[in-house]
Amino acid sequence: MKRNQKQKKSRNNFNSTVSVFVMYLQKRGHSKSTISAYEHAVLHYLHWIDSNPSKKRKSKADNIDDFLYNHLPICKCGKPYYKSLKTLRAALHQYYICTEGEKKSKPKKNIDNFSIEKELADFISYLKELQGLSDNTCIYRLRNVRNFLYTIFDQNSLNVEQIKKADFLHYISTYTRHCTAGTKNVIAYSLRSYLKYLQFKGVIKADFVRIVPSVPNWKLSRVPDIFSPEQIRIFLNTFDRTTPVGRRDFAMALSMVDLGLRASEVARIGLHDIDWRQSILYIKNTKSKRDRILPLPRRLGKAIVQYIKRGRLSTTTKELFIRHSVPFGISLNTEQVRGAMRRAYTRAEFSNSITGTHILRHTAASRMHQNGATIKELADVLGHKSIDTTIFYTKINIPVLRNVSLPWPEVKK
After folding, report:
1. Which listed residue, of 83, 154, 252, 281, carries a Cα 20 to 30 Å from 232's Cα?
2. Residue 410 falls within a domain, yes or no?
3. By CB neighbour count within 10 A (0-12 exposed, 13-18 middle, 19+ buried), where does 399 fall?
4. CA 142 from centroid of its chain's CA atoms
5. 184-208 tens-digit pLDDT
6. Which one of 37, 68, 100 terminates a domain?
């Protein structure tokens, strides 16, 4: 049988599978050209599976990796099968989600240590259920403790009684050598949190918790970075407010510039969190576990209205800010909010060292303080539990500093 006839027969055999996949892509909002490319990519994969009956006994995830990284480099399947690794990888990623209902996990360099992973699962439950920590805090503490435990035990069975005080000191001094003081302290906090968990279980004594050293990090000894009024003007002017995405990103930027919201708080703003009659914005499920009621500034309210009326897609998503690319209409996550601001920094030609969104929060706090807001009022707006945290945000108050600096006394004759 000729190759073209074989390919035609293969496509007929896979019609039902491919049709479901195509409908899945259409529902997600992919363009016709992308759907066509992904369709041919999946046909290539299915043809390869059909030509290798032994593959049918393996998992789909393993087969996809085998196809991409072992078959593709020596592929001789011919037209019309796609051979672009980038296209095939993207297509098969969506095909896996379509058929399995979940994302394909990334290949891991090391096999998971079951005893360590079980310990980490118990630890994360402790952090969430008993400590009531935010998801972001749980994620970085889990990551740091996982790195520590795998460094100590690797693939050996976990035995916490074998962990020595020297192991913690060696890990802190060796694996945080090139980290900033702030990052070192985050790692130290994570390890102390794990020790408190072990103490809670009765595995170790209370004095063991104190062995992890604190790293000197005098927060109030440095001045936070802020944008000048001119830089803020340039930054806000980079958003193209003639497009839906530009209107969305402009409104997100104003929520950080005018109210000092965190990127995670911006991502979670819901349509029902705005009281238009009273010009109030409700901030819920915050890092500090304290809901806040904030005044809605006029220009932010206007920007949100423009986005809702002339930009936001029709969707059942309850969050205000949504995706305008595939998959359309779902809510943005924290990293996507940060990404929108980073792209604006690039357009504004700011320094490459400026990558995060906390500089916008610092700037908002400094400006509010200069306009007469008290430290307590700022703490309420920013959602801080500790006044000390707020003081750091307000260390730059140029008008006050000008008043404090006295003129040089003249010599009187």
Report:
1. 281
2. no
3. exposed
4. 15
5. 888 888 999 999 999 999 888 877 7
6. 100
